[in-house]
Amino acid sequence: MTLLVTGCAGFIGAKVSEVLVQHGHQVLGVDNLNPAYDVRLKQWRLHGLEALPGFHFTQLDITDRAALAAVLDRYPVAAVVNLAARAGVRPSVLDPWVYYDTNVTGTLNLLELCRQHAIAKFVLASTSSLYGDGPRPFREDQPTDRPLSPYAASKKAAEALCYAYHHLFGIDVTILRYFTVYGPAGRPDMSVFRFIRWIAEGDPIILYGDGSQERDFTYVEDIARGTVQGLDPRGYDIINLGSDRPVPIRQVIATLEQYLGRTARLDHRPTHPADVRATWADISRARERLHWSPQTSLEDGLRASVAWYEANRAWASKVSLGQ
User: Fold this and answer.
1) Rounded to whole angstroms, how far apart are CA atoms 84 and 11?
2) What is the mean pLDDT of each run of 10 residues along the chain (323 residues)?
3) What is the DSSP letter of 211?
4) Quick one: which H or E segment has residue 163?
5) Which of 107, 76, 103, 75 minimizes the C-alpha distance to 89?
6) Angle of CA points 272, 273, 274, to nearest 5°
């Protein structure tokens, strides 16, 4: 079948597009190639995708309703996988408007076009940031009405829109709450890419807090596999995709030091008020309903991330790390 994947040049979107093509689907990928982070990474991913038979790319912004409508008029699709988003907690505090434009208005545009074109399936990428400092492990049925950042609030609004369109128009919706996704060619504004780069190049690691804060790191290929499995009919469902293994940040740094053969220099900064103390996914629902569980250990995933950086160091060492 033919699927629309938004944010196809993004970290998760590129891997999901690749997996879908490998499964024999036609993928219509759209991305605006915005400079939220260094566009060279998006171009690198897109270059690999465009070599795949069955992948077709259109550059557009999901906030542009007319452009989206024109694409769907030309290419009938069976499902939409909305991976286009402005992501990141700290940057959303500085520019909340762009987060609402993309994450809320963009999602609304796609849902409305699903209604108009009788597209039965919608998958939304959401975030563990919705849980804030709630009780751990995070379960899908616990309250998420106290977001700690504009980013989390925008994703909560997108989830609410999805429910409204499911209720009113019967659109089948799967919402996937991702937990700290990492892997080769990852986002340069996230910790794993930054830590690898800083350690490899001998630059100090900017570390917010003392490094004891924990994150539920989840490998990108596991996330992509779970996202594709989310295309099965669900009615309306919210499912965590995480590793179920929170790890202290300083443990990640120590592992990367071992793989890179260098000692990190730490530049400690105060904890950001929008950051949470820890994330930890309860993935019982993913195991039960998607028959999904993570397959890649943190050690293997970090090793693959280091190998990618070393193979692409000539240009990856020059990528902007953002704010």
Assistant:
1) 10
2) 98 99 98 96 98 98 98 96 95 95 99 98 98 95 95 98 99 99 97 98 95 97 99 96 98 99 95 86 98 98 99 98 80
3) S
4) helix 150-169
5) 103
6) 90
Residue 323: what pLDDT? 64
pTM exceeds 0.85 for this model: yes
Residue in 127, 141, 139, 120 with CA at minimum distance from that of residue 233: 120
Residue type, 232: D
Tell me if residue 219 falls in helix, strand or coil.
strand
What pLDDT is recorded for position 285?
98
Q: Which CATH architecture has domain 182-214+245-279+295-316?
A: Alpha-Beta Complex (3.90)
Q: Closest Cα partner for 251 from 280, 210, 283, 218? A: 210
**Among 151, 178, 182, 309, which one carries the catalytic annotation?**
151
Positive/negative CA dihedral, 297, 303, 307, 310: positive
pLDDT score for 55: 98
Q: Is the dihedral of CA 295, 179, 163, 30 positive or negative?
A: negative
CA distance 25 to 23: 6
Q: Is 182:305 a contact under the CB 8 Å cutoff?
A: yes
SS3 60: coil
> Which candidate, 8, 309, 53, 46, places its Cα nearest to that of 186?
309
Annotated catalytic residue 151: yes
Domain ranges of the chain: 2-179+220-241, 182-214+245-279+295-316
What are the residues whose beta carbons fall under 8 Å from the beta carbon of 251, sequence distance 6 or more?
none
Strands 247-248 and 214-215: antiparallel
Task: Please determine, looking at this structure, whether the domain spanning 2-179+220-241 carries the CATH number 3.40.50.720.
Answer: yes
- The tokens for 197 are 């780069």
